[in-house]
Design brief:
24 strands, single chain, ten-stranded mixed beta sheet, alpha/beta, four-stranded mixed beta sheet, 508 residues, binds inosinic acid
Length: 508
C-alpha cells in the first residue's frame, strides 16, 4: 500500500525525529485522528495521550468495524504489533469509560496487552459528572456547552489539591479518605444550587453514572456505592495496566519513536484559548508534552492540524461563522440535531442562499455533527488570525484536513484580519476603539465577540480532489489556497487530507 510521494514525504518529514506531536490549531474536530492513525501505524513505537479525557471522541474503522474511543490512544489497534499505548498523568481518566472501551476491544477479539495507564492520571468520579451537568443545567443560556463528561470539575479538584489519582484505586483506605473529602465539597455545591428533586435524579440517572447507582436520597452521593464500584470493579480491572508512565516515557527518549496524541484544540486551551469558553487543560503541544511527563524541548516535530474551514461545538465567539449569531442559536437548538437526515434542508447549496444556509450546506458536506450526540457543529471560514495565534504555541508546521469538503465552492474565503466593532475597551495595555484593525487574536471572549472578519476572497477549485496523491496533482486554485495560508500565517503546510478514508492523506 503506502508507496510513492506520500511515503517519501512522510519519511522526509520525520527524518531524525524521535518524538512527534499531533495537535489541533482550531476548536477540535479537525480530523487529527487520521494523521495520528497513519503515524501510529507507519512510524510510532509508543503512542501517548497527555491532556483532556473522555470529552475527546475518535472514530476508527478497522476491518470494516467501527470503533469509537474517548480515552485509549488511537494506536490501540496496533497493540498486536507490540506498540505501546500510554495514558499519561495529564489526562483526567474516567474508569467507567475506559473499562467500557476495553470491553469493546474484548468483544472484537483485539488485544491491549501493552496499554499503560499512569498511576498519576487524575480520576474522574461521579461527582464530577454530576457537577458538570448540574452547572450547565443551572446556567441555561450562559452555559459553556461542555461535553458533560466531568472534565472541568475533575481538573478543579486537582488544582484545589483534593483530587484523587489512579493510584488511589489501589489503596482502599486512601481512596475512602480522599473520596469522603471530595464528596463533602460536591454535596455542598449541589445543595447550594437548589435543584428540585426530579432534576437532581435526572442528572444522576445517566448511563455514564450507571443510571442512578450513585444517588443517595439524603446525602445526594452514595459514597459506599461509589467505593464499591470504583475499588472492586474498576480498580481490579485496571490494576495490571497501572504504572509510572512518565518514567517509562523518559526512558524511551532517543530509543523509541514516540507519538504524542493531542486532544481538543489550541483555541479550547485553558491557557491560550477563548476563555471562558474553553476546556480545562492546556491543549497546546506544551501541555501535551507535560501531560506525558516530558519537556517541551523533547518534542522534535509538532504537526498542527487545521481544517480548510472551521467548526466549533458549544458556546463562545467564532468570528468567521457562516450565519453568525443565527447559526450559533440554530446549532444550540436541539431540535436541529441530525438536520442532515431531514428533507427541509435538502435544497441548501454551498454557492447560494443565505449565509446560514451556506453554513448548513458546509456542515452537511463535511458531516460536521458530533460523533456521539449528533449535535450540529457551527461552521465558518478559515481564520488566519486565529491560526497565527495557535502557531505561536504549536509552531509553524501545518497539516490541512478536509480540503475536499470545499471542492464545490466557487469562492473560498479566508480571514486575514479583524475589525473591532465594540465599545472602548482596555486590552493588553492599549485602548481598543471601534474601527481598529486587529492583526492579533484577542483570546478574551469579551473582545472576540466584537470583531468583524476582514476576508480575502480566493477562487474555488471547483473540481473533485479525492484520489489525488501528490502535491503536483492538486488543482492550481488549491495550490494557491495553500500558498496563501503559508504566506499569511508564516508556516509550512506539510500535507493534507482529501477524503474520509485513511488512504486519503498526502504528505509533501
Ligand atoms: P469540556 O471539555 O467538556 O469541559 O467542554 C468545554 C468546551 O470544550 C465545550 O465548548 C466543548 O464543546 C468543547 N470540547 C471539549 N472537547 C471537545 C472535542 O473533543 N472537540 C470539540 N470540542 C470539544
Amino acid at each position: 500500500e503506502a508507496t510513492g510521494e506520500h511515503e517519501m514525504g512522510l519519511n522526509e518529514l520525520l527524518a531524525g525525529v524521535r518524538v512527534a506531536g499531533v495537535v489541533c490549531n482550531q476548536w477540535g474536530d479537525t480530523g487529527k485522528g487520521k494523521v495520528v492513525d497513519v503515524l501510529a501505524e507507519r512510524w510510532a513505537d509508543i503512542i501517548a495521550r497527555g491532556t483532556g479525557g473522555a470529552n475527546a471522541g475518535h472514530t476508527i474503522v478497522c476491518n470494516g468495524k467501527e470503533f469509537v474511543f474517548h480515552l485509549v490512544p488511537s494506536g490501540i489497534l496496533h497493540d498486536g504489533q507490540g506498540k505501546v499505548n500510554v495514558i499519561g498523568e495529564g489526562v483526567v481518566l474516567d474508569p467507567h469509560v475506559l473499562v467500557e472501551e476495553l470491553n469493546q476491544l474484548d468483544r472484537a477479539g483485539l488485544s491491549y496487552n501493552h496499554l499503560r495507564i499512569s498511576h498519576e492520571s487524575k480520576l474522574v468520579l461521579p461527582h464530577h459528572l454530576v457537577l458538570d451537568r448540574a452547572r450547565e443545567f443551572k446556567k441555561g443560556i450562559g452555559r459553556i456547552g461542555t461535553t458533560g463528561r466531568g472534565i472541568g470539575p475533575a481538573y478543579e479538584d486537582h488544582v484545589a489539591r483534593r483530587g484523587l489519582v489512579v493510584n488511589d484505586l489501589l489503596n482502599r483506605d486512601v481512596f475512602l479518605q480522599k473520596l469522603g473529602r471530595a464528596l463533602e465539597g460536591a454535596q455542598r455545591e449541589l445543595h447550594s444550587m437548589e435543584l428540585d428533586g426530579e432534576t437532581t435524579r435526572e442528572i444522576f440517572n445517566h448511563p455514564l453514572l450507571l443510571n442512578g447507582r450513585f444517588y443517595h436520597s439524603t446525602k445526594l452521593f452514595d459514597g459506599e456505592a461509589i467505593a464499591k464500584t470504583y475499588l472492586e470493579e474498576y480498580g481490579k480491572r485496571l490494576a495490571p495496566f497501572i504504572s509510572n508512565t512518565s518514567a517509562f516515557m523518559r526512558a524511551a527518549l532517543g530509543k523509541k519513536n514516540v507519538l504524542l496524541e493531542g486532544a481538543q484544540g489550541l483555541l479550547l486551551s485553558v491557557d491560550h484559548g477563548t476563555r471562558p469558553f474553553v476546556t480545562s487543560s492546556d491543549s497546546s503541544i506544551n501541555g501535551l508534552a507535560r501531560g506525558v511527563g516530558l519537556r517541551e524541548r523533547d518534542v522534535n516535530a509538532c504537526i498542527a492540524i487545521a481544517k480548510a474551514y472551521m467548526t466549533r461545538v458549544g458556546s463562545g465567539p467564532f468570528p468567521t461563522e457562516l450565519g453568525g449569531r443565527e447559526s450559533e442559536a440554530h446549532c444550540n437548538d436541539h431540535s436541529h440535531d441530525r438536520e442532515f437526515e431531514r428533507k427541509e434542508y435538502a435544497h441548501v447549496n454551498v454557492n447560494n442562499g443565505s449565509e446560514l444556509e451556506k453554513g448548513i450546506a458546509l456542515r452537511v458536506k463535511g458531516s460536521e455533527y458530533g460523533a456521539t450526540t449528533g449535535r450540529p457543529r457551527r461552521t465558518g471560514w478559515l481564520d488566519l488570525v486565529a491560526l497565527r495565534h495557535a502557531m505561536q504555541f504549536n509552531g509553524s508546521l501545518l497539516f490541512l484536513t478536509k480540503v475536499d469538503v470545499l471542492d464545490a465552492f466557487k469562492e473560498v474565503r479566508v480571514c486575514t484580519q479583524y475589525e473591532y466593532a465594540g465599545p472602548d475597551y482596555n486590552y493588553g495595555g492599549s485602548m481598543l476603539k471601534s474601527g481598529d484593525v486587529l492583526d492579533f487574536f484577542p483570546a478574551d471572549s469579551k473582545v472576540l465577540e466584537c470583531v468583524q472578519p476582514v476576508y480575502a476572497s480566493l477562487n474555488g477549485w471547483g473540481t473533485p480532489t479525492n484520489g489525488i496523491k501528490t502535491f503536483e496533482g492538486l488543482p492550481v486554485e488549491l495550490k494557491n489556497f495553500i500558498q496563501f495560508i503559508e504566506t499569511h500565517a508564516h508556516g509550512k503546510v506539510c500535507g493534507l487530507s482529501n477524503g474520509a478514508s485513511r488512504e486519503d492523506v498526502i504528505f509533501f
